Amino acid sequence: MRASGDAMHEAGIDNGDVLLVDRALTPSHGNVVIADVDGERVCRRLWKQGDSIKLQAADGVTRDIHPNEAAPIVFWGVVSTVIKSLLG
Description:
Helices cover 0% and strands 42% of the residues. By secondary structure, the chain is mostly beta strands. A five-stranded antiparallel sheet has the order 1-5-2-3-4, with no helix packed on it. A hairpin with a 2-residue loop joins strand 2 and strand 3.
């Protein structure tokens, strides 16, 4: 899939990069994941401690995503590889 936006720039994922997503992997703490949240597919780093989870952007600006009953987080896959274009 292709990345959109700048929220994961500091993690090395830029707007327009191609992401290889492994849907067979179980997301764990620290993984960059693709998740469906409130009808939107997002790319974020998974933070997990005990039963608590949140999705964090790498830009230091975008707010964390916390699951709730109205907007549960549904994991779609784990980003395994980022492919960047060298053409402008």
